Amino acid sequence: MRRLFGSVRSRATLGATLVVAVALVAAGAAVLLSLRSNLLDQAGNDAERTAQNVVAQLAAGKAYGRLDLDDESPVQVVDAGGTLVAASEDLERISGTATDAVRPQSDGTGGAGASAVPDDDADDDTAQEDQDEPGEIGEGTEFTDGSATIDGDTGDYRFAAVPVQAGDRGKLTVYAGASLDAEQSAVNSALTVMLIGLPLLLAVVAGVTWLVTRRALRPVEGIRAEMAAITASEDLARRVPVPGTHDEVARLALTTNETLAALQTSVERQRRFVADASHELRSPIASLRTQLEVGTAHPELLDLDGAVEDTVRLQDLASDLLLLARLDAGERPGESRFDLGALAREQAEGRADVTVRGRGVEVAGSRGQVGRVLTNLLDNAQRHARSAVTLTVREEGAWAVVAVADDGDGVAEADRERIFERFVRLDEARSRDDGGAGLGLAIARDVAVRHGGTLTVGRAPAGGALFELRLPQAR
């Protein structure tokens, strides 16, 4: 059961079916209530018309025994004291009115009351003559529900109570009932149709929702299967199928392929990085090992200066690789404030042919990482300069700009982005003794980007390279 409702298709089908079921039940209840209300109103109107007919006769002064009462509907005439003075002839039992009596006790003149349409005999005409004084029909009909038995048939009725001022007979109330059999039959029929139709309709809704959801989610299953295959094969060159529906599923497939492409690029970059790092580490380690082995066998031939130089190069390379690893891991630069101008002068101190210009500008971030950027830029500039390097610090709006210019040959326009890639060294700088490992500029740009800035290269006024580091000023 848990597995069955663990799928999107099952939950969507169940949810749609429940929503439709609630809507149908609410609509069905509203229809039944409205139908019952309308039929009750209709029965009340029929009962009121019957009562008004009797009331009109009483208001005209007609005697109880001569009242024209409906034999098919229960009718009672009750006086102000609650005494039944007239009733339908075949009425056997009644409830829901002012009295449950079914046989009249008084005619209002001291004689017997009437329980049916009077006979035409002369004795009745003499005993119960019409009253001379006319009556007045009262206002305000009241409705009640009850039951009655007429000629052996029992049923539910809607009763209307209409008052009338019948001359010297005082205030009378006429109760007339209308059968509720039609209302009950119609409500029961509608309820039966709903009880049969509702499950069928819900089954149709569930089936349609299941099929539609299955069709809609079929591309998702294809994406899932392809992703499982990619995971099993570790082949990041594969891509998931993109449906031609141009909907959310298609956009999911496109985004998944973009993620796979980015992951493939990252993995390939990581592989190249590991290979290049291994290659770069191999040379100083092999050189250092060779010198130590020669020194062990022939101490007089040990080149201490070369060993120290190889050790320093190895240390610098390890430091660069460690910093790149921290940057790739998303290390945050921090929010400490420092003077960029003072840091530039500090990094340029002791360097020959380096001129520092400009004023102090405050920035926020990692002072050590920004200092590493300035060191790398100055090292690169001195490596390629003929005679002079200029370091300038200035403000440009909300930016703090550090410009490092040299008077060397510059960087060709085609190579101005490539030099920021890791382990890239241009042909004129391939010597490991002079050119380093090709990580300095890559580290510089990564640090600049993580500080919210940029690092670009262009042409200096003296014809060499002009590197511009832009960092946001501290607020």
How would you sum up this structure, described in words?
With 475 residues, the protein is of the alpha+beta class. The chain contains 9 helices and 14 strands. It folds into 3 domains: 26-185; 248-328, Signal transduction histidine kinase, dimerisation/phosphotransfer (DHp) domain (Helix Hairpins, Orthogonal Bundle), CATH 1.10.287; 336-472, 2-Layer Sandwich (Heat Shock Protein 90), CATH 3.30.565.10. It has helices at 8-59, 122-127, 181-233, 248-297, 304-328, 340-348, 367-384, 432-435, 440-450, and strands at 75-79, 84-87, 91-95, 136-137, 142-150, 153-165, 171-179, 336-339, 354-358, 362-365, 389-396, 399-406, 454-459, 465-472. Strands 1, 2, 3, 4, 5, 6 and 7 form a 7-stranded antiparallel beta sheet that branches. Strands 9-11-12-14-13 form a 5-stranded mixed beta sheet. Strands 8-10 form a two-stranded antiparallel ribbon. Strand 6 and strand 7 form a beta hairpin. The model is unreliable at 107-113, 116-129 and 428-433 (pLDDT under 50).
